[in-house]
Amino acid sequence: MNRPIYELIHPEDTEKVREQLCGSEASLARTLDLKTGTVKKESGAPRVHMSCRRGFICRMRVGDLEPLTRLRNRRPIFNHNGQQYVVVHCTGYIKNSPPAGLDVPPSNCLVVIARLQIASMPICNDLASPSSFSVRLSDEGKITFIDQRAADVLGIPSDPASGSSADRLLQRYWWQLAIPQDEKLLRDTFVQQMQQLSPGPHESPVPCHIQCRMYYGGGTSELNPVTLSVTVHKFLNPYSEQFEYVVATHQIVDPQQQQQPPQPQQPSSMPWGGLDAGYGVPTDGPTPVSAAATSNGWNGGEPNASNYQNSNFQ
């Protein structure tokens, strides 16, 4: 209370906030010169009456982040001269008189509500044994957002010079994370989601579930890839029904639960329909003299012609 607002604003944003506090039309009657890239003031009277409403984004200073888990686990947080700042979205209006309870001279007063702009980017250090991560894809299949837990799940080494290790995957095609054998699977899944029509008004398209193998260690080696269960959703704007983005959630698959390729069944060499359950006796065909059987049924080998009196069958 009773402190200049500029002490809490990031130095690079003070001019922006100062303009929002000004209530005169002349101060904001400016145009952008597209040829020179400079902002010029209009010489004549403003053609449009300036609204008293205000809406802008700026960076405001915060205190200790340790007790603020909600902020500590999110980005971005800006540092300047040892102070930490977060992005806030301010919406409000210019009021001619100050709010009740404030003893200040009559003047214009800015009344706004500031909302934190928090990106959903959990930091891996605060998560125990991360086993999943999410990515957001554009209509081209490029990664526009990646969960920071991907660094641990995919074993991406950290690089202090370039910042977060997972951010290096941004603007890459999603299927480039998979090994060559599964790259087509991811690409086809993405195309299938993009071509899927909305089932009805205000209803989301049906998600797709697949399993794939991705590179581990941040390189291109196919040795020891990590197997992931992937759920892919396409999100549409509920009002315009226009495409927004595709979200793919990846979950590490337990080795015991990994999908096994189907084993080819051995074609039966027996001309009859099958065996009588538990006794190894043919259900049709020539009458056998003896049949090799155990307490659990057939001995598991191929039929032996010596076990049958007549083996002249097709």
UniProtKB/TrEMBL annotation:
Keywords: DNA-binding, Nucleus, Transcription, Transcription regulation. InterPro entries: Circadian_TF, Nuc_translocat, PAS, PAS-like_dom_sf. The keyword Transcription regulation applies. This is PAS domain-containing protein. Residues 255-314 are annotated as: Disordered. Transmembrane segments: none annotated. PANTHER family: CIRCADIAN PROTEIN CLOCK/ARNT/BMAL/PAS. Residues 304-314 have a biased composition (Polar residues). One of its GO terms (molecular function) is DNA binding. One of its GO terms (biological process) is positive regulation of transcription by RNA polymerase II. GO terms for cellular component: cytoplasm; nucleus; transcription regulator complex.
